[in-house]
Each structure stands twice: as C-alpha cells, then as structure tokens.
C-alpha cells in the first residue's frame, strides 16, 4: 500500500521536477516574478494531480489491490482531486497579482480575458467544471446524494479535456520536449481511464447474471442468489461488486450501479449478495423479481489475506457489514479449514442479528472459530471491557472491521488505544464509491 501511494504521488509530482532545469534567476528578481512562478507552478501541479486522479478512476478490477482495496484507492483519488482543485483555484489569482505589477488592466485581463483569448477561456471552463463536480465531495457541503454525485462526476471529462487544451495553449513552463512527453503520457492515461469508466465499462466489463432467488432475512434485508448467464465471476471471500439491476418494474434503481459485498463463498454455484435497505434503490431491490437480469462488475477489495495465514484474527461486524465475514465463514466451512478467529457481531437487538442461526452453525463447523453477539440496547456501545471479557487476547489478533462508519471509527479507536498497530487493523467502508 505504501509503495502504491508513493508511486501515485511521485507521478503527480513528476512535472514539477521537470520544471527545475527551466528555472532562471529572473524568476526570483522581484515579488511579481515570484508570484508569476508560483502561479505557473500551481497550474502545473494542479493539472498533474487532476490527470493522475482521472487515471485512478478507471476502476479496472485488480488495479485496486496494491492500494489495499478500492476504498483506499478511492481515498487517494479523492485527495488528488482535492489537491487539484485547491491548486488550480490559486493559479489565476497568483498570475493576476503578478500582472498587477505592470498594470491593473493586465491583471484584469488575466481574470477576465478579452474576446478571442480562447486559451484562457479554456482554463476557466476547466476550473468551473472542476468546481462543480468536485465541490459536493467536500464535507463543508454535507453528504451528497449518491446518484447526483455520480452524474456530476461526468463533468470530469470536460474538465480534463479543457485543462489539457489550456496547458497546451500556454505550454511554456516546462521544456518543450519534456512538456510534450509528460502531458501526452498523463493526458492519454486520463482520457483512456475516463472513456473506459463512462463509455466502455458497462459494455465490456460487466458480467450478466440472473436473479435465481431473493431470500428475505428481515423486512429490510435480502440476500440475492444470482446464476451466471455466461462467464462466472472469479473472486475471493470478502470482496465486493457493483451490481446493476435491469428490472424496469423497480420503484427505483433500475440501471443504477451500487456496491455490494459478496456473501457467498468462492466456488459456490451461485453468486450471493446481501443487501440492506438504506436508500431508495436498496429499498426497491428488496422486491426484485426472480428471473431479472443484473450486471456485475468486479470483483473489488482486498479485505482478507490471500492464502493461509497463521495470525489469529478478530472480526468486528455491524449490521449488513456481516456480509464479508459470512462469505469467509462459508468458504472455511466448505473447505473444512480451521481458523483461530473470533467474530464480534454488533447489532442493536436480537431482531437485527441477521444470519445468526447460520453463523452459529458455521462457527461450530470451523475449528477455532468463536462467535460473540453484542447488543447495543443491552450492552451499550462496544468498549474495551466487553472485548476483554469475551476475547481476552484481542490485542494480539489481526483485526478486520466492517459496518457503519461510527462502528468502524469506534472499534478502530478502541484497538489503537489498546496497543494494536494500525497496520494490523483492516477496515472496509463504502463512502462515495
């Protein structure tokens, strides 16, 4: 993960390194020259961050694994996008302040370019598109509506195209040969990634499945069993997919993709997905009709280790976050494998303890596996005393946490304060995926 992160930020910084040979003493002569240099520097750095962020948006299965899963890759993508926006917001005012040393008219021409100055107008188009599609992702604006946020992200194609054209128009900051090479490489990667995501992914990257059964575990939880229409998905326990239903009778969500964790074990004849009603689309899919065709894209995530491991494990699940653990227990039971594992399943009350009967049966079939139920209404929030009482050696275990964000934050904080190293805590959340 660390190497992947370093590689991505190094790629974003590469154009800045290429600027160094072109710097002259005149760039530091006075305040106007320094402001001009900073304006050019923020422009180059902002465009570079934007292009690398666009490359990471391709969402090709497997590309996320070096980052520790798609969730963590997406966080890097979001940070690059935020850096691009902040840097490019600084770019025009710095250049305008630099030009103000000559005259106020020159400064005004930077901010409000005269008619026919298409290169500068392209820059403003890029910045405006960037502001529109990135701003809702900032916490200041509150939690965005998921599908609206996804649609706004399509403006990324316009922002990338206009920003690259603007850089080509004024490409005098980097040496000519270096400028041509670095922007062609980054822009080509960004264009291919955006084109794949917006145009070709659904046609070429989706597998088609049919709903064989929709088993209701509660009035707001359903587990879909899906039969492949052609090639099967190859996946590991704990991974997730994007599922797109094509049932036009659904009250909401037809044609919309949403991420869901796989609850089936690799090798099963069907693909199983556990879904809790958390919004309009997930509520509507509770009543999806058998025989409905769905699209499956993935798999994504890198939650559990691949292959055998000697590390004892602590699993903390909340609500529908039980799905990856259910899939892994099903896999272990099917293989007759043992695991020194302890699952703490956190729910509000017994009525919300979904799959608990099967979990108890699976725990009995997996040597070394233990199951503990934590009820919020009875035990209060999960705390150290509860963990010590039910799993005395929890601090020496590698921890895996999946569930609502408050539970993830609480459990991770408890473990860190107890002395568990951060690199021994694995979390899975689905914020703006």
List the helices and strands and how they pair.
Elements: H1 2-19, H2 31-56, H3 70-99, H4 104-111, H5 118-134, H6 146-152, H7 155-169, H8 176-205, E1 207-218, E2 221-228, E3 240-245, E4 258-261, E5 271-276, H9 280-284, E6 293-300, E7 313-318, H10 323-335, E8 341-347, H11 356-365, E9 369-375, H12 376-379, H13 384-390, E10 398-402, H14 405-417, E11 425-428
Parallel strand pairs: 7-8, 7-10, 8-9, 10-11
Antiparallel strand pairs: 1-2, 1-6, 2-5, 3-4, 3-6
Helix pairs in contact: 1-2, 2-3, 2-7, 2-8, 3-4, 3-5, 5-7, 7-8, 10-11
What is the alpha-carbon Rg in Å?
A: 25 Å
Query: Which consecutive residue ranges, at least 5 long each, have pLDDT under 50?
Result: none
Structural class: alpha/beta
- DSSP helix fraction: 40-55%
Strand order of the largest sheet: 4-3-6-1-2-5
- CATH C-level category of the largest domain: Mainly Alpha
The average pLDDT score comes to 87
- List the helices and strands in order: HHHHHHHHEEEEEHEEHEHEHHEHE
What gross morphology would you assign? elongated
Strand proportion, as a percent range, falls in 15-25%
Query: What count of helical segments does DSSP give?
Result: 14
Secondary structure tally: strands: 11
- Distance linking N and C termini: 19 Å
Largest sheet: 6 strands, antiparallel
The CATH topology name of the largest domain reads Four Helix Bundle (Hemerythrin (Met), subunit A)
Gross CATH architecture of the largest domain: Up-down Bundle
How many domain units? 3
């Amino acid at each position: 993960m660390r190497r992947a992160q370093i590689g991505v930020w190094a790629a974003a910084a590469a154009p800045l390194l290429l600027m160094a040979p072109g710097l002259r003493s005149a760039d530091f002569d006075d305040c106007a020259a320094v402001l001009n240099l900073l304006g050019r520097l923020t422009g180059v750095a902002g465009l570079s961050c934007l292009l690398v962020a666009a490359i990471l948006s391709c969402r090709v299965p497997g590309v996320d694994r070096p980052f520790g899963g798609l969730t963590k890759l997406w966080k890097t993508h979001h940070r690059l996008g935020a850096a691009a926006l902040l840097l490019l917001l600084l770019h025009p005012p710095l250049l305008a302040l630099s030009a103000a040393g000559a005259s106020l008219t020159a400064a005004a021409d930077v901010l409000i370019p005269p008619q026919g100055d298409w290169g500068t107008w392209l820059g403003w188009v890029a910045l405006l598109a960037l502001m529109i599609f990135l701003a809702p992702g900032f916490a200041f604006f509150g939690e965005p509506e998921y599908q609206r946020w996804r649609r706004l992200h399509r403006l990324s194609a316009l922002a990338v195209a206009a920003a690259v054209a603007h850089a080509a128009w004024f490409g005098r900051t980097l040496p000519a040969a270096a400028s041509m090479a670095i922007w062609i490489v980054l822009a080509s990667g960004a264009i291919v990634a955006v084109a794949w995501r917006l145009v070709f992914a659904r046609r070429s990257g989706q597998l088609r499945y049919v709903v064989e059964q929709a088993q209701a575990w509660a009035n707001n939880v359903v587990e879909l069993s899906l039969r492949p229409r052609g090639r099967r998905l190859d996946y590991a326990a704990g991974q997730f997919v994007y599922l797109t239903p094509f049932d036009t009778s659904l009250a909401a969500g037809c044609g919309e993709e949403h991420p869901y964790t796989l609850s089936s074990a690799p090798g099963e004849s069907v693909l199983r997905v556990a879904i809790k009603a958390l919004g309009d689309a997930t509520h509507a899919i509770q009543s999806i009709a058998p025989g409905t065709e769905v699209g499956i894209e993935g798999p994504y995530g890198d939650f559990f280790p691949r292959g055998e491991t000697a590390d004892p494990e602590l699993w903390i699940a909340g609500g529908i976050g039980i799905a990856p653990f259910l899939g892994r227990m099903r896999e272990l039971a099917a293989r007759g494998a043992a695991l020194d594992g302890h699952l703490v399943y956190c729910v509000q009350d017994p009525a919300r303890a979904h799959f608990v009967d099967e979990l108890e049966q699976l725990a009995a079939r997996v040597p070394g596996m233990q199951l503990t139920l934590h009820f919020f209404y009875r035990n209060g929030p999960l705390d150290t005393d509860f963990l010590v009482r039910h799993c005395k050696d929890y601090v020496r275990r590698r921890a895996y946490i999946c569930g609502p964000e408050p539970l993830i934050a609480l459990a991770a904080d408890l473990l860190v304060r107890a002395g568990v190293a951060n690199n021994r805590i694995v979390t899975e959340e689905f914020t703006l995926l």
